[in-house]
Amino acid sequence: xxxxxxxxxxxxxxxxxxxxxxxxxxxxxxxxxxxxxxxxxxxxxxxxxxxxxxxxxxxxxxxxxxxxxxxxxxxxxxxxxxxxxxxxxxxxxxxxxxxxxxxxxxxxxxxxxxxxxxxxxxxxxxxxxxxxxxxxxxxxxxxxxxxxxxxxxxxxxxxxxxxxxxxxxxxxxxxxxxxxxxxxxxxxxxxxxxxxxxxxxxxxxxxxxxxxxxxxxxxxxxxxxxxxxxxxxxxxxxxxxxxxxxxxxxxxxxxxxxxxxxxxxxxxxxxxxxxxxxxxxxxxxxxxxxxxxxxxxxxxxxxxxxxxxxxxxxxxxxxxxxxxxxxxxxxxxxxxxxxxxxxxxxxxxxxxxxxxxxxxxxxxxxxxxxxxxxxxxxxxxxxxxxxxxxxxxxxxxxxxxxxxxxxxxxxxxxxxxxxxxxxxxxxxxxxxxxxxxxxxxxxxxxxxxxxxxxxxxxxxxxxxxxxxxxxxxxxxxxxxxxxxxxxx
Length: 488
Ligand code: GLC
Fold this sequence. Notes:
By secondary structure, the protein is an alpha/beta fold. It has helices at residues 19-31, 51-54, 92-95, 104-125, 141-150, 153-156, 180-187, 207-214, 223-228, 239-244, 279-293, 316-326, 342-354, 367-376, 392-398, 409-414, 435-451, 453-465, 470-484; strands spanning 2-7, 37-44, 58-67, 70-81, 84-90, 131-135, 164-169, 177-179, 200-201, 204-206, 217-220, 249-251, 302-307, 332-337, 359-362, 379-382, 402-406, 428-430. The protein is built from 19 helices and 18 strands.
């Protein structure tokens, strides 16, 4: 039996800002269905975690952590849920903010503290994981401290000997960068670490880089993205390092929770359906949502859904650019759900006002509504400029809302473009980050929907039959763990 400890800054259902939380919230559960694997998770105990979960946690111990020249308290709480043990590091000074990510330097100190506390917790609890699986820059210092401090015999004896680490990249854009001098004050790491072959990058200190240098293995969340980040266009300044480590870098595509996202049992949608009979139900769901959102109620409308963080990564500048032209076709409706950058929130509010009855913008996060949009929409638009994996297109496929995507990262890997000659495909895609190309692709989808309905329906069925549940991907992680431990 091998022990895997996930370290991350967010996980569903406790706290979520993005797809990272979905992955950390569902992968350990799936891993624990393998009888040779025991996955646990450690998270910060943020004040904003809902009370209902805090009430179920048990306090186990506390200790001190040396960080930023101070000795700081760390409490450990524990919770068992879904066959997974969840640990929480408690410190009010660091984790009492209204939001989990705040300003740059403070976050760097907060997560340096967390990373050290995670390692110290293992020692104090006498819990020796075989592998610490780290996620994104917030946990980038764990491999650094593990190798250079916790695996040296002075303080911890041989406790950490042979413990491996994995660094998973969910988004290379965020790296945890700051001036070298201040980062040294926070981390206590000396000059030795701040050279270009270690934690320095373009004259700055860089947590993620530290993780990528010292981890035993690097993964990212699709094979396509694993290749892309070795190029300068997608590499965010770290492509050289990723090329150098390409023998220890692989991509494993994310899954989604097939129980939570199941059109056949979904409690949020009025008409449940399966891949064998969906036409009436999807139309019913569409009319119900149209009514709720104040759109013109008509089952023949071509409804395009978008559910996303409203950021540049997700391609919203392309959408802004073509919106006026797109809605000239009065049979198209656009439904948006999400929050994010002010300029996109503003522009979508504006579009809703200007095209009342045809465009609906819900500037909020609402789980129920998101399920209803997947079930109601005919197509799901996701024109990302880059996309490590992307989860929404997987949910859309599951609900038979055909993704219209840009061919990048996980979108390219999971959505097979429609081929009208051999009748294959599960969606539509375009290659360049170009508003015109996107608009043409949308128009093509509209044409297939309107003039080739049997072919469209066959494609919906194929999309719904794809399997992007966690089973396959969790097995790949399990294989990787076994390989790293020499158990294969
Ligand atoms: C990030 C990426 C997204 C990925 C998610 C989970 O949010 O932008 O593509 O699906 O992490 O790995």
